[in-house]
Structures are given as structure tokens and as C-alpha cells.
Amino acid sequence: MLFGAGGVIEEARQGDKVICMSTIDPAAVRGFAKRLQDKGIGLIEKGIAKGGLKRPEDAKLRLGLALLQSGKNKSKAMQTLRGVQGNDGAADLGRLWAVYASQNS
Fold first, then answer.
1. Angle at which helices 56-70 and 74-82 cross, to 10°
2. pLDDT tens digits, residue range 4-55?
3. Were both Cys, which of 13, 63, 74, 98 would link to 81 (CB 3.0–4.6 Å)?
4. Domain ranges of the chain
């Protein structure tokens, strides 16, 4: 079982993969993907909040992109992307994605 009490998703960690080999309706699989994406966003946010990351600005960039792709909270995605800092190119990528997203609303 994937979701619900005792489901696999309750114990999922960042980097875990889910492979669906069922013959269920493709719409159901898309629904699963959406729910898993939400779980992934939460995992990224928890990792950033916990701290101690080697490249925290890269994590913020990936969070912004995940939020943007989810389509659920564009303003939070834009805020996250604009807030990426550093001088290794991550800040430039964050600003670039923010500009792209603002032009492709």
C-alpha cells in the first residue's frame, strides 16, 4: 500500500523512488504522481530547515523548481527562486527561472 495508515509513503525519505507496475487507470497513476510530488516538496523543505546541507542554495533552487512545476503555489516558488544566493551560479539560475516563470504565467 502506498498511501494511508502504514503506507510506504509515510516512511519515504528524500531520494526514494516509487515504481508503479500496476495495470490501473493512467489517471490514477497521474494522481499518485501529484501526491508524491507534494511529499517530495515537503521533504526538500524539511531538509533545508534542518540545515547542515553541503549546498543549501542548490537545495533552495530545487525547491523553487519543484514548487513551480507543481503549479500549486507560484508566489512561493517565485519567492524561493528569487531568494537563492551564492556566487557559484545558483543565484543566477534562480533569477533566470523566476523571470521565465513570470513571463510564462
1. 160
2. 777 777 777 666 666 666 787 878 777 777 777 766 777 778 788 888 888 8
3. 98
4. 8-103
